[in-house]
Amino acid sequence: MKQVPIVDWLQRLPGGMMLVPLILGSVTGTFFPGFLGLGSFTTALFKNSALPLIGLLILATGAQINARQSTGVFKRCGVLLLTKTFIPAVIIILYGNIFGREGILGVSLLAAMIAFTNSNGGLWLALTGQYGTDEDRGAYIASGLNDGPFFILLALGLSGHANVPWQAIVGTVIPFIVGFVLGNLDKKFAEMMKPTAAITIPFFAFALGTGINLQNLVTGGVTGVLLGIGVTLVTGFLCFAGYRLFIRNSNPGIGFAAGTTAGNSITSVLVVVQADPSYAPFQAVATAQVAAAVLVTAILCPLMTHYMCKRYDAAHPPQEQRA
Q1: 2: which DSSP letter?
Q2: Cβ neighbour number for residue 294 with a 10 Å cutoff
Q3: Distance between CA atoms of 186 and 120, rounded to whole angstroms?
Q4: What is the domain class of 50-309 according to CATH?
Q5: Coil, helix or strand for 164?
Q6: What is the pLDDT of residue 237?
Q7: Helices 266-275 and 283-315: crossing angle, nearest 10°?
Q8: Mean pLDDT in residue range 57-68
Q9: How far is CA 179 from CA 24, 85, 174, 189, 196, in A?
Q10: Given this model, what pLDDT does residue 317 score?
Q11: What percent of the chain has pLDDT over 90?
Q12: Cβ distance 309 to 255 under 8 Å?
């Protein structure tokens, strides 16, 4: 039987494993809602699986974080969390204070907070493998920590922009802690959980898509492009500046490799709405906007990283860097 390289096609498209099933889920939910209501395993897997699978992915992410990292790795991790998560969160809180939850140009506070405050760990590993050092690659830990709803719920709750009960915040971090503890106690557990993302992402992406009307997907996609451009330029520059100020033995251009929105961040929209249902009116468009930002940053970020790393190398020859 002739083989169809479906997985290869999806992997060639930036964020394809998340975006394509999301769009297919949106098509199914818009035109074939009866299929999703068949019941039994069909409804459980294709419509109601998002939250359980997201919880499993968060646990698997925690299992990959190694507590025995070098000082240089933790220093870089701290710089990235400061410049990619904490400072952007403050900026978006100010955005919400000025423009309200609705935001401007159709970009809600919910979509902006989620798109700006997390990073794509896969792209970080790929780009640091080409332009960075081993310690830069180890700073993937930052993506493991911010690639989820915990910091988003914390920022929205503490700023007063969401009524987030403490149980919801604790509930998002417990699977991560369980995975972290088990992964560090038993390396075989961490190895066992490695394929979790590849297995779960297409299925919970489809389930998320079933709640998005195609009209919202198109509308949100247009504004999501602008959102993605802003994410790469603003957070990429902040991380570049953080590297320039605090990291001396790496090319600071690599900071732009964190100017991304992770595919998993699409799930955070649902988690925030579950924690504070008053954000429900923004859910459909925000999901589409974040999905568009994932794709745009996956394309723009490598271009900016290449340009900034080469430019810095030209201004600082290797001999000067070694000195």
Answers
A1: -
A2: 26
A3: 26
A4: mainly alpha
A5: coil
A6: 97
A7: 130
A8: 80
A9: 31, 22, 9, 9, 12
A10: 61
A11: 42
A12: no
Structure tokens at 76: 């870089």
Residue 45, judged by CB atoms within 10 A of its CB (0-12, 13-18, 19+), counts as middle
Instruction: Check whether 209 has a pLDDT greater than 90.
Output: no
| Structure-block tokens of residue 103 | 């935001």
Rg (CA), the chain: 19
SS (H, E, C) 94-117: HHHHHHCCCCECCECHHHHHHHHC
- Could you tell me which of 212, 224, 96 has the C-alpha nearest to residue 162? 96
Q: Residue 106's CB: how many other CB atoms inside 10 A?
A: 17
* Choice among 170-179, 197-206, 211-220 with the minimum mean pLDDT: 211-220
Asked whether 289 and 170 are in contact (CB, 8 A), the reply is: no
Contact 263, 293 (CB under 8 A): no
Q: Which residues contact 61 (CB under 8 A, 6 or more apart)?
A: 144, 147, 148, 176, 179, 197
Cβ partners under 8 Å of residue 19, min gap 6? 13, 205, 263, 291, 294, 295
Instruction: Enumerate the β-bridge partners of residue 104.
Output: 107
Does residue 259 have a pLDDT over 80? yes
CA 247 from chain centre, in angstroms, equals: 24
